[in-house]
Design brief:
The protein folds into two domains: 1-30, no CATH class; 37-180, no CATH class. Helices cover 76% and strands 0% of the residues. It is built from nine helices and no strands. The radius of gyration is 20 Å and the shape is globular.
């Protein structure tokens, strides 16, 4: 099953050469360092993906925004795009509730009970927009900003340590195999 899914994903994804020929993605695809998995580009990609994925909260914009931010910061584009999927339909209400609570804690005023009521009854876009344009917007934006920056910093540190651990593990395994021979 896993192999079928991987084959389906590979067949539907554009190749790097196809992206280089596209006028919109040509600059992004032409820079090989953005696609290489290195000890510096992977943590940057994790941080960029988490920052954009949590703060943007708009599907589609997240991946494009993360890829665009990888250009100046030299982050790994596939990792950044993958990390944006941390905010998905299952986690979005949690991020919004946490950001509202954090925004309220810092002195902004947003009614969390109204958010929960709108969420539970499946409110329309107009109702959500009306609620957001009230006092909720500053609390939500500030809370999302703080959560995304903290998540990006933690993601960077964890990815850097994980990369270091993996490299040391591979080296020790290789050395142990040489000693045994």
């Amino acid at each position: 099953m896993r192999q079928k899914i991987a084959a389906m994903v590979r067949s539907s994804m554009p190749t790097r050469e196809q992206m280089e020929r596209n006028r919109l993605t040509g600059r992004l695809a032409a820079r090989a360092e953005l696609w290489r998995f290195t000890r510096r580009s992977v943590p940057r990609g994790v941080a960029i993906g988490l920052l954009v994925g949590i703060f943007a909260m708009i599907p589609g914009v997240q991946i494009a925004g993360a890829a665009a931010m990888c250009l100046p910061f030299r982050g790994n584009v596939p990792i950044a795009a993958g990390m944006t999927f941390l905010s998905n339909p299952a986690t979005t209400p949690l991020f919004i509730a946490a950001s509202l609570a954090l925004g309220n804690w810092f002195g902004f005023h947003a009614d969390v009970a109204t958010f929960m009521a709108l969420f539970e009854r499946g409110a329309s876009v107009a109702e959500w927009t009306g609620w957001l344009l009230s006092d909720a917007a500053p609390a939500l934006i500030f809370g999302l900003f703080v959560i995304s920056v903290v998540a990006a910093a933690l993601g960077y540190v964890i990815a850097a340590f994980a990369w270091r651990w993996w490299t040391v593990h591979k080296r020790r395994t290789r050395l142990a195999m040489r000693v045994e021979q």
